Structures are given as C-alpha cells and as structure tokens.
Amino acid sequence: MSTYEVIPMMYNSREQINAIILLEQQCKQLDSIHLKADLDHISKKDGDHALLCYRDGNLVGLLSWYPSDGVIGNINAIVHPHERRQGVFRRLLKFATAEMKIAGIRQLSYRVPNNLPSGLGTVQSLEAVHDRSEYAMQLVNEAFSAVHSSDLTLSVAEDQDFEFMITCSAQAFGNSEEWTRNYFTETDEPSRVTYIAWKNELPVGLVRINVINETTAFIHNFCILPVYQGKRLGRTVLGALVELLMKQHYTVIRLSVVTDNDRALNLYRSVGFEVQSEYQYFSGSL
C-alpha cells in the first residue's frame, strides 16, 4: 500500500529542485494551468519555508509559506492533478501550521489561481474568507518608457528614513503606524532594498525591491504620500526605478496589483507592465 511522506525542502538540493520543476510541468500539461511553486523564493538561502510530499518516491505536492508581518502566514501550494482529493494538501498544511505556530503566526492567507476550481473549493472547505484578487504583472522591456524629471531622485533608504517610511506607507495604504512599523521591522532583510523618492530635496514616496536572484526583482510597497498624489509623480518614480533596475542588469521585473485598483493598473501598464496571471487570496485562522 502506497504511503505519503512529508519532508522539509533543502534550498540547495538539485534533486528536489528538479522534482519541483517536473511537478510544475505535469500540472501545466494536465491542467492547462501554469501553477507556480515560486521556485525562486524557496530555492534561495533564507527564502520561503517549503514542505514536500512524496508518494512512492515521486513528488506529488508542495506547500510553501512566508510571514509577511510576523502574524500572517502566506501560503502557496501545488498538488499533482492525479493526487488531489487524497489529503495531500491537508497533510502538508498540518506540518506547515505546526511550524507557523512556533513562529508566532496566528492567521493564514491562501493564494489560489483564479482558474483552478479545485483550489478554490479547497480553501472554501477550510472556511477561509475571500480577501482580494490580484494580477501578477511583468515588465515587457520593449514597451518600457521612462519619464525623466530633473527635480526627482531615488536613493537607498538609510536609518534616518525609517520614520518617514512608516508615515508614508501608513498614510498611503491606510494601515496603522503600529502595524506598519512591525511590518518594516519583520521584513528588514538583505534581499529587500527600500528606495526613497525625493522631489526638490523633500521625501515624497517610497518603493521596495525584493531581490529574488541575480536577474529577477519584485517591486512592492510602492506608494506616494497622499499630499503629493495626483501630481503625476507615480509614473515618474516608477519609471526611474525600472530604469535603475535595468541598469543593474535585472532582466525580469515583476509586481502585483489588486484587480479593482484601476488607477494603479493603468499606471503600471503605462510604464510597460503586462498582466501574466490572476490570483484569488483567502484569509483563514491558523
């Protein structure tokens, strides 16, 4: 009788990485959906946590998670189409939640591709509540067009910029300063770089980069102080950042945006980003 085995992923295991790539290919072939294991995130040192489920020596499931603010565990999972409804995801989730409880996680966020009914059914069976929908976008280099401004500059954030980061992000996104302070503290890691946008030597916004690998960068936490919004600064700042990243030899530049944020969506498209896929996010208790 076949048995399932759940083991932690070793970020530098070529055998496990090859098995994950094969699992992605199998899902794409059988589902006609490109399920992503976020291999860039789980195959680097100090990257996302990942658990693998094997059956008879074959990888049949994967679950990865990372804490975004020290409280929420963000979950992504892949299960082989022939192994669904066999308890693979719940086995992985059981091991993952045990890890997350030790890490102080109290809430879960599930990411599900918009066109995967089995995934949507699973999170609903867990009584998770729909939170938002997001587009995953990627820069198409041929379409990139920067808008230059002599009075606007970007600089890497320094220690003295921390309070501005909290104020700007909290005001722009509507979160409390306490939550924002904790978020920036929890995500202060070598792979993330924060840039401050300056206009006429005054700080007007910020944007963060998560360096995935030598060629891939993910843009997030892009915001302009509300008092400066509506002045076309967003496109100028974003264009300057993309130009900077391209000079740093990043060939894959990605970001995500909630689907009902037409203003941001149009901004990103105007700089040369295109929608690659859509995801649904659900919130649940640990």
Structure overview:
The protein has 286 residues and is α+β, with helices and mostly antiparallel strands. It folds into two domains: 4-127, Aminopeptidase (3-Layer(aba) Sandwich); 139-278, Aminopeptidase (3-Layer(aba) Sandwich). 33% of the residues lie in helices and 35% in strands. It has helices spanning 14-31, 39-42, 88-102, 117-125, 162-173, 177-186, 233-247, 262-271; strands at 4-8, 49-55, 58-67, 72-79, 107-113, 129-139, 152-156, 192-199, 202-211, 216-224, 252-258, 273-285. A twelve-stranded mixed β-sheet has the order 1-2-3-4-5-12-6-11-10-9-8-7, with helices on both faces. The longest helix is centred in the N-terminal third of the chain and has 18 residues, at 14-31. The protein is globular and about 65 Å long. The mean pLDDT is 91.
Topology, element by element:
Layout: E1 4-8, H1 14-31, H2 39-42, E2 49-55, E3 58-67, E4 72-79, H3 88-102, E5 107-113, H4 117-125, E6 129-139, E7 152-156, H5 162-173, H6 177-186, E8 192-199, E9 202-211, E10 216-224, H7 233-247, E11 252-258, H8 262-271, E12 273-285
Parallel strand pairs: 4-5, 10-11
Antiparallel strand pairs: 1-2, 2-3, 3-4, 5-12, 6-11, 6-12, 7-8, 8-9, 9-10
Helix pairs in contact: 5-6, 7-8
What attributes characterize this protein structure?
globular; acyltransferase; about 290 residues; alpha+beta; 12 strands; Aminopeptidase; transferase; Acyl_CoA_acyltransferase; Bact_Acetyltransf; twelve-stranded mixed β-sheet
